[in-house]
Amino acid sequence: MNELIAIFLGMVLINNFVLVRFLGLCPFFGVSKKIGSAVTMGFAVTFVMTIASLATWLIRNYILLPFDIEFMEIVIYILVIATLVQIIELFIKKTNAALYFAFGIYLPLITTNCAVLGITLINATQDYSLAGSAIAALGGGLGFTLVLFMMSGIRERLERANTPKAMKGLPVAFVTATLLGLAFSGFGGMI
Amino acid sequence: MMPIGVLTAIGVACGLIIFFVYLKVPQKVKGLDKTEEINSILPGMNCGACGYPGCFGYAQALSQDADLITRTPCSQVLQNPESLKKLEKALGITLDASAMSKKALVHCTGNSEVICSYSGAQTCKGAAQLLRGYKRCPYACLGLGDCVEICPQGAVFMDQGKNVAVVDSEKCTGCGLCVTECPQNLIELVPAGTKIAFLCNYKPLKNIPGRERCDFGCIHCRKCFKSCEDEAIEWNKETALPEFNQEKCTLCHKCIEACEQNTLADFTKIGKEAELVSV
User: Fold this and answer.
1) Domain-embedded: residue A175
2) Per the domain annotation, does A26 fall within a domain?
3) Domain with A129 in it
4) In this structure, what is the dihedral angle of CA atoms A25, A31, A33, A38, given to the nearest 10 degrees?
5) % of residues, chain A, pLDDT over 70
6) Average pLDDT, chain A
7) In the predicted model, is pLDDT for residue B279 greater than 50?
8) What is the number of structural domains in chain A?
9) Which of A80, A104, A162 lies nearest to residue B10, judging by beta carbons?
10) How many A/B residue pairs have CB atoms within 8 Å?
11) Helical ranges in chain B per DSSP H
12) What is the rounded average pLDDT of the residues B129-138?
C-alpha cells in the first residue's frame, strides 16, 4: 500500500509528466488557452493513460515476456494504444452521447500523445505490478491535468496583462512554463 | 519469424476487435448521422454566437429541433446561400435569409474629446471600470479594440483618425460577439438592409445636454425628422430620438445633410471611407 502511495505522489508531483519528464508538451501549449478545454483534455488523457497502461501491462506480461521479444514493445504498444482509443471512441459514440460530446475532438487527438506511450514504457522499465501500473498512470494523468489547469489559469490572466508586443501569446507562455518547471523541481527528492 | 508473427497476430486481433465493436455494440444514441450531416454544412469556426458549445453542439441541437434555426440562426450560414440551401435540405424546411440576416453597427462617431490620460490595462473593459472611461462622453467608444480582437471575421477595424471602432458590413456575419464584448454597450445588431445609421448612444445625464459632451452627438433637434420627404423618419417622443423606417427610405441623404451634428451616416458606406487599421 505504501509503495502505491509513493508511486502515485511521485507521478503527480515529483516526476511530473509535463514539467519534469517533458512528455505531452504539445497539449501543454496547444490546449492551455482556456481552463475548460485544458481540464477536459487532462481528464481525457488520464482516462486513456490508465486504460492503456492496464492493456499494455497484460500484453507485456503475457505475450512479450514469455516469447522473449521485449524489443518489439514500442511498435506493439503504439498499435495497441491506437486500437484502444478507437474502440473507446466507437463505444462511447454508440452508448453515451453526453460523454461523447464532452470528450469531443480530444479523444482521437490523444492517440498520438507521447505521454500515453511514455507511461507504458515507464511502467515497463520500472517493472510495476498491475495495480502499480494503473496507479502510476492515474497519478501521471492527474499530474498532467494539474499542470494544464495551472498553465491555462495563468495564460488566461496573461492575455489581459500589458506584455510587450513581441512577447504576447506563446513567447510569454514559454517563459511561464520555465518558471512553473522551476517551482516543480522543488519537489525533487521528496521521496 | 517469431516477432513478425506476434506483431501480425496482434494487429489482426486489434482490427477484428474494432470490427466486432462496430458491428455488435448496439447504437443506442440516435440521430448522430443527421448531426454529422448538419455539422458538415456549418462553418466549423466555433464562434459560439448561437449560444451552443461550438458548431457540433449547435448541429446536435438542430438535429433534434429543426425550428431552432429560425429562433437562433447561425449567422455564418445566412451569409452563404449555398450552405443555406444545403441546410434547408438537411432539415427539410425553407427559410427567408434576408429577414434574419443582421449586421453589427457601432453607435458612436468617436469624436468625444479625451479628457484624461489612461495607462492601465489596454482593454476597453479595463478602462470602462474607471469612471466609465477617459472621454468626455461617458457613452463613447473607448477605441482600445476589444471588439476588434474578438471578431472572428476580422470585420471590425479601428478608425485611427477618429479613434472609433468601425464595422465593415460586407465582412460582418452578425454573430454578435462584439455586442456582448463592448463594455459601453455601443454595438447593436441591425437588419442587413438598414439604410441610415444613427451614430450616437448618448443618454442625457442629469440634464447635461449632449452638445457639451461631444461635438457630434445627437442634440434632439428634430431636423432629420423635418427634412425627410418620404415620411421614413418617425420621432419617438419618449426617447426624443428619430426612428427610421427602412422600407420607406429612398436613401436621398436629405437627413444626413440636414443633421448639423453629423450624427447620421449612410449605413452602406460605413467602413468604406475611413482610414482602417487593424489592431
Assistant:
1) yes
2) yes
3) 2-185
4) -100
5) 97
6) 87
7) no
8) 1
9) A80
10) 63
11) 2-24, 32-41, 54-64, 68-71, 75-79, 81-91, 97-100, 124-129, 146-150, 177-181, 210-213, 223-227, 254-258
12) 80
Distance (Å) from the alpha carbon of B29 to chain A's nearest alpha carbon = 6
* CATH, range B102-216+264-277: 3.30.70.20
The answer to whether the CB of B138 falls within 8 A of the CB of B201 is: no
Going from N- to C-terminal start, the domains of chain B cover 32-100, 102-216+264-277
What residues have CB less than 8 Å from B5, skipping those under 6 apart? none
Give mean pLDDT, residues B154-180: 82
Q: What is the pLDDT of residues A139-162, one digit of tens each?
A: 999 999 999 999 999 998 988 888
User: What are B22-35's pLDDT values in tens digits?
Assistant: 888 777 766 667 77
- Could you tell me if B90 and B42 are in contact, meaning their C-beta atoms sit under 8 angstroms apart? no
- State how far the Cα of A132 lies from the Cα of A3, in Å rounded to an integer: 8
Report yes or no on A191 lying in a domain: no
Whether A190 is covered by a domain: the verdict is: no
Which B positions 97-156 lie with beta carbon below 8 A of chain A?
A: 121-123, 126
For residue A97, what is the nearest residue in chain B, using CA coordinates?
B29
pLDDT band at residue B278 using 50, 70 and 90 as cut-offs: very low
In angstroms, the separation between the Cα of residue B94 and the nearest Cα of chain A is: 29
The conformation of residue B144, written as its DSSP 8-state character, comes to S
Helix, strand, coil: what percent of chain B each, to 5? 35, 15, 50
Q: Which residues contact B159 (CB under 8 A, 6 or more apart)?
A: B110, B165, B166, B274, B275, B276, B277
User: A80, B3: Cβ pair inside 8 Å?
Assistant: no
Question: What ipTM score was computed for the predicted complex, to two decimals?
Answer: 0.74
> Which range among B71-75, B101-105, B251-255 shows the weakest confidence by mean pLDDT?
B71-75
Nearest-by-Cβ selection for B121 from A67, A80, A160: A160
